[in-house]
Amino acid sequence: MRAENSATARTSIAVPTGTSASRTDGPVHPAATDGRDPATAAAGRDSSQPGPRPGTLLAALGVIAFSLTFPATAWGLEGFGPWSLVAVRSVLAAVIAGACLLTLRVPLPGRRHWGGLAVVAAGVVLGFPLLTTLALETSTTAHAAVVVGLLPLTTALFSALRIGTRPSRTFWAAASAGAAVVIAFTVQQSGGALSSADAYLFGALLICAAGYTEGGRLARVMPGWQVIGWALVLCLPLTAPMAAIALSYEPVELTAHSVTGLLWVAAGSQFLGLVVWYRGMAAIGIPKASQLQLAQPLLTLVWSVLLLGERLTPAAPLTAAAVLVCIAVTQRARS
């Protein structure tokens, strides 16, 4: 991993004649062109970002990493309390990120980016891990996967509101169909009953979508690993004391499962997964990248079978095929 100058260097962006740019947020960023004239978007793209195909691969790797989060969290809860697990995973991830930032001597982000980093921190570093971990105390991983099924559509909506993207009707139709298929499948897997954890799950859905959207926007002007790296470091003054307090109150049992689960959610889900995810989002756009997550609940169910011993119904292959069709449509739809 290496530092990239795009995090600090002020790159001049060509603006077509007749287009005005706001001067309150620095130079025009490529994120502002999502869903608009492709030529304008190409003109503003950071040359350090990967192209569409590599970007899709990076986003897909992020989805695979995220699909292991719920099973790994279930493992972690075998030996840690929910507050301890969330706090310790954030501290460990911050140590990894901070070491990378220090080793590569990455300068502090510009002042205008700290607000966005705070949203990322609140959404993907603290909010989503805490709410889903609390939910998984009483919910199965299959039921919790409902959140992930709704996340792509919610992220696309947040993107439209925050960045001004305007996906096509075909895109929205395919995204809605894919979300409906995933929701129906995961609800059927959990027996069709709503648990007391639903409030946690829907809260996690909203706050994570906001964090994904803001992180995807920031990843257009700085390397994705620095986005999540600085967000993790920003939370360290809060998560370190929280970890110390939680560990003193909640019992800890170090087992192979609990330690493996903790290490994965810290290094894999909290840092490395978000590194490739944000970089992929920057390359192919937030709406298209978010639709790749339609496959995440199905992957989570597969891991649940292999790692947690849950039984998978015969409906899984049919649902997987339907979701893949929806993903293919959203990837081809103009956004």
Q: Can you put this structure into words, describing what you see?
A:
There is one protein chain. This protein has 335 residues and is an all-alpha fold. The protein contains 13 helices and no strands. Helix 4 (82-103) crosses helix 10 (256-284) and helix 5 (114-135) packs antiparallel against helix 8. The chain is globular. Residues 1-47 have low confidence and may be disordered.
User: Radius of gyration in whole Å, from Cα?
Assistant: 20 Å
The helix/strand series, from N terminus to C terminus, equals HHHHHHHHHHHHH
H/I helix tally: 13
Q: For the report, how would you describe the main beta sheet? A: none
Segments where pLDDT lies below 50 for 5+ residues? 1-47
Mean pLDDT across the residues is: 79
Classify the helix fraction into a percent range: 55-70%
Hey, roughly how much beta strand do the residues contain?
under 5%
Main structural class: mainly alpha
Distance between the termini: 31 Å
User: Could you tell me the number of beta strands?
Assistant: 0
Overall 3D form? globular
Which terms would index this structure?
single chain; 335 residues; mainly alpha; 13 helices; 69% helix
Question: Helices, strands, pairings?
Answer:
Blueprint: H1 38-44, H2 52-67, H3 69-76, H4 82-103, H5 114-135, H6 141-162, H7 169-189, H8 198-218, H9 224-249, H10 256-284, H11 286-291, H12 296-308, H13 315-332
Helix pairs in contact: 2-10, 2-12, 3-10, 3-12, 4-5, 4-9, 4-10, 5-8, 5-9, 6-7, 6-8, 6-12, 7-13, 8-10, 9-10
Compact summary:
With 335 residues, this protein is mainly α. 69% of the residues lie in helices and 0% in strands.
